[in-house]
Amino acid sequence: MEWIDGTSLNAENAFKVRLSIRTALGDKAYVWDTNEEYLFRAMVAFSMRKVPSREATEISHVLLCNVTQRVSFWFVVTDPSRNHTLPAVEVQSAIRMNRNRINNAFFLNDRTLEFLRIPSTLAPPMDPSVPIWIIVFGVIFCIVIVATALLVLSGIRHRRRNNKGLPGLDDAEDKCENTITVENGIPCDPLDTKGGHINDGFLTEDERLTPL
Amino acid sequence: MAQASGLDPLVDGEDERPKWDNKLQYLLSCIGFAVGLGNIWRFPYLCQTYGGGAFLIPYLIALVFEGIPLFYIELAIGQRLRKGSIGVWTSISPYLGGVGLGCFSVSFIVCLYYNTVLVWVLWFLLNSFQDPLPWSTCPLNLNRTGFVQECQGSGTVSYFWYRQTLNITADISNSGTIQWQLFLCLVACWTVVYLCVIRGIESTGKVIYFTALFPYLVLTIFLIRGLTLPGATEGLTYLFTPKMQILQNPRVWLDAATQIFFSLSLAFGGHIAFASYNPPRNNCEKDAVTIALVNSMTSLYASITIFSIMGFKATNDYGRCLDRNILSLINEFDFPEQSIPRDEYPTVLMHLNATQPERVARLPLKTCHLDDFLDKSASGPGLAFIVFTEAVLHMPGAPAWSVLFFGMLFTLGLSSMFGNMEGVITPLLDMGVLPRGIPKEAMTGLVCLVCFLSAMCFTLQSGSYWLEIFDNFAASLNLIIFAFLEVVGVIYVYGMKRFCDDIEWMIGRRPALYWRVIWRVVSPMLLFSILLSYVILLAQQPPSYEAWNPQYEQFPSREEKLYPGWVQVICVLLSFLPSLWVPGVALVQLLSQYRQRWKDTQLERSPKPEGRC
């Protein structure tokens, strides 16, 4: 693998980076040129400088290679002597710590700025203390319990009222005054049960016998 | 001729029996009972599996020769005898009382597991009130570097269903613990059912306006939305293109007949119960034809909606399959982003295969055919909880669509539950099981409580395996037996002439020759052949189930396992125990008749006391 300044270095400590700028930004996508590469190298150097033993990392220590149209390239970080590459583990942890800053510098996210072989720490999902479904459940259940209680209580009250009044006559009165017989969807309106009550005790003799 | 005791003469007078507030309530209740979850998730699947439009032919034939005549008998006999299923059959003949008891037991069993499906629907409904929907992403693993392994293998929706909802075990003998989230939903569901059936038809009659009509509203909304989605036309053409040669397969005819049978909810006793609250002179012939036609139209309407959305999902999946392949190519060969449009993918792939085959071979490229995605049909809970929920994820405004969809499923299931509960409650009320002083609310509460306690077993981790067993074995065979006995009982035991006289009194004209021929000959023969074929099929069916086992090598495919011995025994028991009521009651009746006759002869033989005034 050819490196920018010709130094052949250990490919084990190199990482491939892949950017999907057009997928992320659509029309507002910027062109990947050498200035963007400079910014990238600066961000990597910044990340390395945060590692306790590597505060001396400079932008020139970060080397890019094989930039393609995709946009993808390999990068590697060397030590100040330019003879060795920093171990992969260190680079990995440094990038992981500052992944958010690097993403934001390029308006990308973990999916569109991929460091192959460096897993990103995924953001924890928004986890409210009380799951939403319990809240909805509580609301619905309370309504149902209240409605059930109301129905049961109204049934008890209705029955108590029925039992208190005279049984039989009250029911008959209720039936005659409140119910309208409905047959096949047509309400029947029997005229003889409205307004007057026929008292069977006064049935005359004539009506019990068949007429001539 | 059997003793027809307990048959009240046909009168126009009022009695104490509760009645419907108006005809519409009665129609909506029957329609709500008939139109259930099966119309949404069973009929479209059958349509698709059995040659699209061609399936309508056996379906319509079954409707005309089996569905409507049987339905007519149920409504007429319920309206005539004005009792629930147990009362009706005891009235027709004491020897046939077992049919009523059998229907009652099957209704009870179906109540248990049908409401469990509603529990699942309620769980999904409650979880739909958030954005993003919880089944759109996988949960993170412990060190937050990636997603949970099981979820990555199976997909987010399957993971949400099998792990976060059911928390399913890998084997049916491993029952696991009760899932508290499902338990809470079970409490809520049975409370809602109690709230609605608390006073019998007085309370369900009010709720039915909403629960029976809301699904139609939602189906219409989904239809309009579905038809405007890309790929809807592919789904519809795929569904309705008739493949006539499939009609030569006898399985098609059997499935059409059983579908019509279960779709109309025949032989449950629920329709008999509903019709028993009718005024005596109601036109049950018109009702039967109307309700059956509405049920079938709803099935068709629902399948158009479902398949336009399935077409959208298939097109979406096909597009994403192509995109994944294109991305693999772009990443491997470092082409610029978005440089391969979907149409040019085949040519590019061919070119690369010719120039650099080794690199292409190393890539995980999948073959994408739209037909493969359209073929991925599903029925039953799989359609609702996995396939459709995934389709909803890709629709803009997903939480709203999810709420609508699961709200619709909930009301559909609830209106069917009313019919099932009436099939249990009305016979109990008629038989006067509880003393008169105890109010109806207490009786319905007791029934709901018993059902709730029994249904707790379905909230175990192995609950869905048990539900499948109940669904496959408990209802089907027994109902066909009861339906056959219904037709034979009414036409031959009760008597065709007496039945036609009753109908003439109720609706004003005798049933036409068409009905009489079908009742006497066609329906019994049809039912008997269905019964035979069903028994043969059931015997041939291997007693196996598909388990969700993350440790399976071919995960996420489900592992086929055999039922253990004790489970097989339970399956067999469920299949015919309710039917045993019929010979059981007949035997008891026979024995009591003999005892009565023996007692009578003893009385005759003993010396008469003198001076008996």
Question: Would you give an account of this structure?
Answer:
The complex is a heterodimer of chains A (212) and B (613). Chain A has 212 residues and is α+β, with helices and mostly antiparallel strands. Chain A has seven helices and six strands, in the order E-H-H-E-E-H-H-E-H-H-E-E-H. In chain A, strands 2-3-1-4 form a four-stranded antiparallel β-sheet, covered by helices on one side. A two-stranded antiparallel sheet of chain A has the order 5-6. The N and C termini of chain A lie far apart (128 Å). Chain B is built from 25 helices and two strands. Chain B has helices at residues 23-34, 37-41, 43-49, 56-81, 85-92, 97-127, 149-154, 156-165, 180-197, 201-228, 232-240, 250-263, 270-276, 284-333, 345-355, 357-362, 370-375, 381-393, 398-431, 440-455, 463-474, 476-507, 513-540, 565-576, 581-605; strands spanning 544-547, 559-562. Chain A binds chain B through residues 18, 20-23, 68-72, 119-122, 124-125, 132-133, 136-137, 140-141, 144-145, 147-148, 151-152, 155-156, 159, 181-185, and chain B through 14, 21-23, 123, 126-127, 129-130, 137, 139-140, 144-147, 181, 184-185, 187-188, 191-192, 194-195, 198-199, 203, 279, 281-283, 330-331, 334-338, 439, 441.
Question: Can you write the helix and strand succession of chain B as a string?
Answer: HHHHHHHHHHHHHHHHHHHHHHHEEHH
Enumerate how many helices of chain A there are, as a single number.
Answer: 7
Global geometry of chain A: rod-shaped
Unreliable stretches of chain A: 4-9, 169-178
User: How many strands, what sense, and barrel or not for the largest sheet of chain A?
Assistant: 4 strands, antiparallel
Q: What's the N-to-C terminus distance of chain B?
A: 34 Å
How many strands, which pairing sense, and closed or not: the largest β-sheet of chain B? 2 strands, antiparallel
Q: Bin the helical content of chain B.
A: 55-70%
Q: Provide a count of the helices of chain B.
A: 25
By oligomeric state, this entry counts as heterodimer
Sheet with most strands: strand arrangement of chain A: 2-3-1-4
What is the β-strand count of chain B?
2
Q: Which strand-content bin applies to the residues of chain B?
A: under 5%
Mean pLDDT of chain B: 89
**Strand pairing plus helix content of chain B: what structural class?**
mainly alpha
